[in-house]
Specification:
Elements lengths: L1 E6 L11 H4 L4 H11 L4 E6 L3 H9 L7 E5 L8 H9 L4 E5 L21 E4 L4 H10 L3
Parallel strand pairs: 1-2, 1-3, 3-4, 4-5
């Protein structure tokens, strides 16, 4: 199985940014734990603060990946283009959020991606990524 983990804007700062919301572990350290926990899965990881780069990575998944774990960050609430890219590919996408978006500002409760994603996981910290990965083995 091959899974792409795709993180959007500001997620390169996880571990140092608003640790009360996003935790103190940086994502690169967590990614190594993911790879160790799931040695049978081939993971690729990309992070970008640029909307078009996230779209390009989504387009490139066709025929290459069995699933995508997508944390589009703030683009979740603003990007019709990313939602269109998710809808355009035949690879299942699970939308992930570290924080519980429903306990935060009203605008964070709107997701353009959720209607075209396989599912959404929110509020379990970095463990949200593990739940998303587990969901691909439920097929």
């Amino acid at each position: 199985m091959k899974i792409l983990i795709l993180n959007g804007p500001n997620l390169n700062l996880v571990g140092s940014r608003q640790t009360d919301i996003y935790g103190s572990e940086n994502f690169d350290t967590f990614l190594q734990k993911i790879k160790k926990r799931y040695p049978e899965i081939d993971f690729d990881y990309h992070q970008s603060n640029i909307e078009g780069e996230l779209i390009d990575h989504l387009h490139a998944t066709r025929g290459k990946y069995d699933g995508v774990v997508l944390n589009a960050g703030a683009y979740t609430h603003t990007s019709v283009a990313i939602a269109d890219a998710v809808a355009a590919i035949d690879v299942p996408v699970v939308e992930v959020h570290i924080s519980n978006v429903y306990r935060r500002e009203d605008f964070r409760q709107i997701s353009f991606i959720a209607p075209v994603a396989r599912g959404t996981i929110s509020g379990f910290g970095l463990q949200s990524y593990l739940l998303a990965i587990e969901s691909f083995s439920m097929e």
